Structure formats: structure tokens, C-alpha cells
Amino acid sequence: MKNKNANTLMLLTGIVAGASTVLFLKSEKGQKLVDIALSKGEAIKTAATDNAQQLLEDGKQAFGQIVETGNSKLNNAVAEVKDTAESKIDTFQKGVDKAKAKLENTTV
Length: 108
Hints:
The chain is mainly alpha-helical.
């Protein structure tokens, strides 16, 4: 019985609160409050959209810089590897030529 009374009380409280809210929102002050809330909501939406677009642009620029830096570092690494390989090949070729000359001198 006690639980039934508590549920009824909660139902009545909800009905009274809802009716009060409807009456307030239909009043002149309530309409002003709704209008203010709607206009502020539109301003917030516009600001959020503008901020999101700016963040996207900033992100694109940052990504472009990262790609540029990566390409530059990769090109430098490739050039270093190429120089090192050419140097090693030259050294190897000199060794081959030296060995060839030595063999030619010994066989003659």
C-alpha cells in the first residue's frame, strides 16, 4: 500500500510539474526565454561550425607540413645512401683494378 501511494505521489508531482512548465512556456516571459534559447543555440551552432572549419584547415596545413618534412628527410636519406653506395663501389673498383694490375705483373 505504501509503494502505491509513493507511485501516485510521484505521478501527481510529474503532472503538476509538466503543467506548470507548459503554462510558463506559453506565457510572454516563457516565449521570450524560448526565443533567447533558440537564438543562442543558433549562435552556438554557427560558432561551432566556424571553429570546426578552422580546425580542419589547420589540420590540413599541419598534415601538409608533415608530408613535406617527411619527403625532404626521405630525399636526404636517399641521397646519402646513393653517395655511400657510389663511394663503396668506387673503392671496390679500385681494389679490383689494383688486384688486376698485380695479377698482370705477376703473370708477365
